[in-house]
Amino acid sequence: MNVAKSGYRVFSANSSVACTELAKKITERLGVELGKSVVYQESNRETRVDVKESVRGQTIFIIQTIPRDVNTAIMELLVMAYALKTSCAKNIIGVIPYFPYSKQCKMRKRGSIVCKLLASMLAKAGLTHIITMDLHQKEIQGFFGFPVDNLRASPFLIQYIQEEIPDYRNAIIVAKSPAAAKRAQSYAERLRLGLAVIHGEAQCSESDMADGRHSPPCVRNTSGHTGLELPLMMAKEKPPITVVGDVGGRIAIIVDDIIDDVGDFVAAAEILKERGAYKIYIMATHGLLSADAPRLIEESAIDEVVVTNTVPHEVQKLQCPKIKTVDVSMILAEAIRRIHNGESMAYLFRNITVDD
Questions:
Q1: 299 burial class (0-12, 13-18, 19+ CB within 10 angstroms)?
Q2: Domain Ribose-phosphate pyrophosphokinase N-terminal: where (predicted)?
Q3: What is the Cβ-side half-sphere exposure of residue 183, based on CA atoms within 13 angstroms?
Q4: Mean pLDDT value across residues 32-59
């Protein structure tokens, strides 16, 4: 049975076979069987979940990896959580290694903060706790009214650098934009390496769009008062692309939390190659690798892209042998074990600071 000594169950909310691989690895490490359930899409694309065993009074962990069809995966998680709630499960804990819509966590003009909406939906469906990894912004934890454990993949990626990159002592950690400098600095300090920052790339900064300055509707003033003369803010101009730091004759390691549209990474690799870097690696937690990402990586100056298995990407690996995977099922399994046994989670955050 899928019952540990102290009684808990682990389910996978994925209808796709490829997406259940991480769930199988986690349950193997825990020494339990995956819960008996069926998740599928009906002919009209509606999501149906059938739980095949009793969960009354039990603590339930739902593992949900997010494939390319993000919205279907979210519905699968919501429907399964609600099915378990109505089946009288005691606690329902979502294990969501990559939290979807995490980039939409700030106001953009007249848009919406979709990440906050998703947090409310998960709570309404019945989730009481979430385990995730490397949230795009740590402030997302404040969207939830229940505990959120934001685990880190950096120990696994740093171990990969130390064990799999020859002569990594001759490397330099690179932030592809000033916004990524804090994460890059953390890697550089832990590996005792230098730091470089690429500045001036031709892209819209997230902070330029995220402050909601265009949200209030324009209201015509009929009172005749013209308002106050406020100072006019000068428009920003992107400086020419520069690399702050010496990368000549070094191995360049670009670090980030998500690699999806690889255009920025490819452009950064070309700049680093021009500045004299002889090998270029990319380390990221979540390898979404959408659209033509595998082809662009294969044709670029990038030597290797290293991501974790928080997001299924086996198809992309077949298309591009430069993509390598680091397994993080160990820390997810340990988090599940500790939460259920009421043990401290501090062990999983040893030497990890708020800025990491």
A1: exposed
A2: 18-126
A3: 27
A4: 92
**Residues in the chain, total:** 356
Which single residue is written with the structure tokens 């999501």? 47
How far is CA 291 from each of CA 15, 176, 262, 275, 348, rounded to the nearest angstrom?
Answer: 22, 21, 9, 29, 34
Within 10 Å of residue 125's Cβ, how many Cβ atoms?
18
Cβ contact 92:62 at 8 Å = yes
Spatial distance between the Cα atoms of 152 and 332, rounded to a whole number of angstroms: 10
* Dihedral over Cα of 58, 64, 69, 74: its sign: positive
Return phi, psi of residue 134, to 5°. Answer: 45, 65
Q: What is the rounded CA–CA span in Å between residue 48 and residue 76? A: 8
Could you give the CA distance from residue 50 to residue 53 in angstroms, rounded to a whole number?
Answer: 9
pTM above 0.85, yes or no: yes
> Two tokens at 256?
């980030």
**Beta strand extents in the chain (DSSP E only):** 8-12, 37-41, 47-51, 59-63, 91-96, 129-133, 148-151, 171-175, 194-199, 242-244, 251-259, 279-287, 304-308, 323-326
Is 39 within 8 Å of 49 (Cβ atoms)? yes
Residue linked to tokens 């290797």: 304
Q: Which of 84-93, 201-210, 344-353 has the lowest mean pLDDT?
A: 201-210
* Distance of alpha carbon 229 from alpha carbon 217, whole angstroms: 19
The single-letter code of the amino acid at 96 is I
